[in-house]
Design brief:
The chain has 256 residues and is mainly alpha-helical. The chain has helices at residues 2-17, 20-23, 30-45, 47-57, 61-72, 87-97, 102-107, 112-127, 134-161, 179-185, 203-214, 218-255, and strands at 165-166, 174-175.
Length: 256
């Protein structure tokens, strides 16, 4: 059964990487890229609410602890327990280093499409509560929507982001403290069921260990696949809005 899930995830990730926006990423004007990243920030800001909801909804204490541990990383502390900049703050700083102004970041309104994607994603998660396999559904959705696909998004966007931010190996560009970190630590580094503790686990792998244990029937497997397909469709819907806008913008430039 797990192989069926792995095949599904591989297919969805491959299709997501082939989204028209990612295929055209090198041709997007820098200001348009910043607009995409600022809109994407609205989804990032909702992550904490998603994790808090799942923690409250889960009944398994071990899974709760895993989810709680991932959430706590959003608010890191040093060895003395002193709070460090949160992931939200690091995202803000990355955007500044990419050329956005504080005013642009803080005053740009959320588009109607972004709001719908965020709201529909939350509703999909809440709908798990009324399903017979709601507990496994919560883990499957949270892992794929908030970890696996996030890593894929940032990996696809990194070719442009890396024009101005580095992974820490450059003396000429500011280090990315948000995008690069999440691209690496959220990723699906192995198939479900083939996680290795050697070198540490990503967030997606931590949740995959629980997911494998919970998938005990074909019905549960189908439920998880349906949720992951819905998560994929919602993320595509978010990026679709910019494809339409870019096409209009390109047409206008051509006509003038």
């Amino acid at each position: 059964m797990i192989e069926t899930l792995n095949d599904c995830e591989t297919s969805l990730i491959t299709k997501f990487r082939s989204h028209p926006l990612f295929n055209q990423i090198d041709a997007i004007a820098w200001d348009d890229l910043l607009n995409i990243l600022i809109q994407r920030r609205f989804l990032s800001l909702s992550i904490v609410n998603f994790y808090e909801f799942v923690i409250d909804a889960l009944t398994d204490q071990q899974i709760k602890q895993t989810v709680r541990g991932i959430l706590n990383e959003e608010y890191p502390r040093n060895t003395k327990g002193i709070p460090l900049p949160s992931h939200r703050e690091l995202l803000f700083q990355d955007l500044l280093n990419l050329g956005a102004t504080s005013e642009l970041i803080l005053t740009t309104p959320e588009t109607s499409v972004t709001q719908v994607v965020r709201d529909e994603s939350y509703k999909l998660m809440v709908s798990c509560l009324s399903e017979p396999y709601g507990q496994v559904g919560l883990v499957a959705f949270l892992r794929f929507w908030a970890e696996v696909l996030v890593s894929v998004e940032y990996a696809c966007l990194w070719s442009r982001i890396s024009e101005r931010l580095s992974n820490g190996q450059s003396n000429h560009k500011a280090r990315s403290e948000f995008y690069y970190f999440h691209m690496i630590h959220d990723s699906r580094n192995s198939d479900v069921g083939k996680e290795s503790f050697l070198g540490g686990l990503t967030h997606a792998q931590e949740l995959a260990i629980h997911l494998q244990k919970l998938i005990s029937s074909e019905e549960i497997l189908t439920h998880c696949i349906d949720l992951e397909q819905s998560a994929y469709q919602l993320k595509c819907r978010f990026y679709d809005q910019f494809i339409r806008e870019n096409l209009r913008s390109t047409s206008q430039r051509y006509l003038t």
